[in-house]
Amino acid sequence: MRFQPVARCLAVAQQFRGPWSRSFSAFTNPAAMAAMAAANNSSSSSASGEGVTLAALPKSWHFTSSLPPDSHFPTPADSHKASREDLGPRQVRGALFTWVRPETQEDPELLAVSPAAMRDLGLAQSEAETDEFRETVVGNKIHGWDSETLSGPGYPWAQCYGGFQFGDWAGQLGDGRAISLFESTNPRTGVRYEVQLKGAGMTPYSRFADGKAVLRSSIREFIVSEALNALGIPTTRALAISLLPHSKVRRKRIEPGAIVVRFAQSWLRFGNFDILRARGDRELTRRLATYVAEDVFGGWENLPGRLDDPDDPSKTPTPQRNISKDTIQGPAGAEENRFARLYREIVRRNALTVAKWQAYGFMNGVLNTDNTSLLGLSMDYGPFAFMDNFDPHYTPNHDDFLLRYSYRNQPTIIWWNLVRLGEALGELLGAAATVDTAPFTTTTTGLTDPTAAAPVIARAEKLITQAGEEYKTVFLTEYKRLMALRLGLNPATALPTDFDTLFSPLLDTLEALELDFHLFFRRLSALPLSAIATPQACLARAADFLYSGGDNDNDNDAEAAGQQQQRVADWLAVWRERVVQDWGTLEDWGAAGPSSSSSSGSGSGAVSDKADGERMAAMKKVNPNFVPRGWILDELIRRVEKGGERGVLKRAMHMALHPFEDNWAGREFDGVVFEGDKEEEVRWTSDVPKTERAMQCSCSS
């Protein structure tokens, strides 16, 4: 397939070859699946129920009751009786987690909570003021456990997993500073989350680290987790952040320590299977895969059935579900069993998420397999960033010298990670109808006869390759849908030419002129069609999208500056014509007809002022006014850590939770007037200071 110039942000220029000795073609064509899990879209600006106390919140420990613990501490009591020093780094085998309690913290200070996270967990907002909440969010109070009787329904734990980091196998990794407390179920929605502390102390998976988190990285994760959720991007969540005044953490300098309380429907990741594959643990691979399907995804019947034509996934936009567990689908050599359906569900979820990253200019910065969610959640926030000037080659990770995790490479890397997952599940995929018979159900080495293994390997290769086509289709369909919405178009009436005539030229222009990715879409949302009805008007309004104050290259070259403005004007003219096709209706013009002064008429068509107002309102609902850029987060960190401010963190969180508003200060949200800072809001939503664009940071946190 020949890639268009701007498919560079979507496509890959290389192909990856995995241990199946099969090439997986570079992608550019993926599509949409079902909508996001209800939990990731459940946050809204309106209050939804009063919530319950932390004590009354239903809690469970399904993960630890379903899967094998570290044999070194087979029970919570064994771990609880051990000294904290005995819970430190070592190799853990034959287990998916270790029982481990958080370190005790002295005089913690609760800095901020996310009201949306409180609501989605099912907690009353007032609960954040209680001592029980403040002690729980730093690990000083353990729920479900009686330390006197050494008994209870549950106990904290840390996961065991491995991973490929920057493409190389890194061995055992695991939750080196994350400790899960319990699973909670929202009484109103029925959604279950696993609640976890980050920065709560050493675990057997800490390797050479200290189990701590610094305030700097904790603020970044606290804000971005909730910001992505508010944008409709699947993500793990952040409930609260606490400063540990007696914790001094050595990184490149001595920094204050902190703990973030975060939660997700599951913290399982590709690395959980990677470590089992590396160790040849076939029994535990099957057991974990079964747990993911039955407990995390809610049952085998919730997984996608075989596509009508797996080699052309566009023929089946929405796959059938409710396929019984033991059903085998597909012709000989490409039969799909329940584990193949599980793999495809994970593929589809991750395709949707990376499409949203690309459409909203978000970069994770370190997409190792241990940072890639089985649920398709954005997770493990380190050197992440939102795009400033549009640059497909930009990576926010200053250690990523080869640009492996750059913006343009994200879709490729997620597929690379998915191939590694397919390899880990390969035996279960390739076994097809015989998956529940020996030798696949035994704990021995499995198939050792090359002749018997050959069809199993060939079938797994075929299914992974077909999943790659599905990934392409799911990805690109979702990307096109989001781009259409961001440009004020109706995805249901999308034209085959939209990508080549509208999306690609826009991205080319943004890159060539180094224009701000987010500000362009937001300013376009406020541009009436009547203001660009002629070529001269387009040229005049094109200046709105260039940096003000002489920040663009060639500002001292009048001819070059004029060419830049003309290029934007030319695109605006094409965009206007396309919007007229979607929004121009005779019904809205009324009796006066399209020549009425109340329409944005031109020689090529018109849109009534009413319809154009609706179009601008719709665009503002998908084009954020505020995103937590790197320079804003740096300012937050400086003001909280060095200046001792607290209110600024809460104001930034409020804006992150309501990113599509025109303004915030003095307005009512959930029945309460928000006392913001107007000057701060204007700064944070205006042009990025020239010296603060495209910032980078390290993985050190």
Describe the structure.
- By secondary structure, the protein is α+β, with helices and mostly antiparallel strands.
- It contains 20 helices and 17 strands.
- Strands 3, 5, 9, 10, 11, 12 and 13 form a 7-stranded antiparallel β-sheet that branches. Strands 1-2 form a two-stranded antiparallel ribbon.
- β1 (16-18) and β2 (22-24) form a beta hairpin.
- The protein is globular, with a radius of gyration of 26 Å.
- Mean pLDDT is 89; it is low at 1-48 and 588-599.
Q: Low-confidence runs (pLDDT<50, min 5 residues)?
A: 1-48, 588-599
Percent helix range? 25-40%
Oligomer: single chain
C-alpha-based Rg, rounded: 26 Å
- Please state the structural category: alpha+beta
Outline, from the CA principal axes?
A: globular
Topology:
Blueprint: E1 16-18, E2 22-24, E3 59-60, H1 62-66, H2 76-81, E4 97-99, E5 109-113, H3 115-121, H4 131-136, E6 157-159, E7 162-165, E8 168-172, E9 178-185, E10 192-198, E11 213-214, H5 215-230, E12 237-250, E13 254-264, H6 270-278, H7 282-296, H8 338-360, E14 362-363, E15 385-386, H9 410-424, H10 426-430, H11 450-486, H12 498-513, H13 517-525, H14 535-542, H15 558-583, H16 586-589, H17 609-620, H18 630-641, H19 647-657, E16 668-669, E17 672-673, H20 678-684
Antiparallel strand pairs: 1-2, 3-9, 4-6, 5-12, 7-8, 9-10, 10-13, 11-13, 12-13, 14-15, 16-17
Helix pairs in contact: 5-18, 5-19, 6-9, 8-9, 8-11, 9-11, 12-15, 13-17, 14-15
GO molecular function: AMPylase activity; ATP binding; metal ion binding
Biased composition (Basic and acidic residues): 78-87
GO cellular component, one term: mitochondrion
